[in-house]
Amino acid sequence: MKIVIFGAGKVGRALIKTLEGRKHDIVVVDNNREICDNVASKSNVNVVCGDVADPDLLEELKVGNADYVFAVTGSEETNFLVSVYAKNVNAKRVISRATEMKYSHLMERLGVHPLVPEQTLARELGNMVLSPLISQMLDPAESSIEMLEEEVEGWMKEKTVEQVSQKHNFTIISVYDNGKFLFPSLDFVLRKGMRLIIVKHNI
């Protein structure tokens, strides 16, 4: 999966930390040389130092081939411009940091998913109250359980849920196919392109 992250500030670095261990092709772009050097020395991602709004750089990065584009710089205008460009070149999913509602609403109309920090934090806090055990389960400091998403490919194609689960020692709790979440039986046959929602115990 190709992921392009524009901005290597706190949000960008947190994304890198979360994603880099999952075998994704990650490119991080920032215009601050010191920050770029720091990220490059502490991670295995591809770091590009340059103006994130430079059309030539955007074209060179082949943003249109990205599965995910995250625009999380400290500039609202830059995030908006990068997001519009990414949608225009057909990046699969574009997520942009937005602090002003006028940008948030416009992004939604353009097919960009706005990330509003206050709303995200509110959802997290609400989940801690409404579903405390689930929040605790998904907290690495509290639990060895992970919830993951995997695409059906390679040897998993045409195998049953039971066969795949036994080989990897995890539980498939849902299969996403054609825009729907399915609850699969053990003899459910997996096809290429389906996505699996998995619960795994790291013992």
Describe this structure in words.
This protein has 203 residues and is an alpha/beta fold. It folds into two domains: 2-121, Rossmann fold; 144-201, Alpha-Beta Plaits (2-Layer Sandwich). It contains eight helices and ten strands. The strands form two sheets. A six-stranded parallel β-sheet has the order 3-2-1-4-5-6, sandwiched between helices. Strand 5, helix 5 and strand 6 (113-115) form a beta-alpha-beta unit. The longest helix has 14 residues, at 117-130. The chain is globular and about 50 Å long. The two termini are 27 Å apart. 24% of the residues are buried. The mean pLDDT is 85.
SSE arrangement:
Blueprint: E1 2-6, H1 10-19, E2 25-30, H2 33-42, E3 46-49, H3 55-61, E4 68-71, H4 76-88, E5 93-97, H5 101-109, E6 113-115, H6 117-130, H7 132-137, E7 145-151, H8 161-168, E8 170-177, E9 180-182, E10 195-201
Parallel strand pairs: 1-2, 1-4, 2-3, 4-5, 5-6
Antiparallel strand pairs: 7-10, 8-9, 8-10
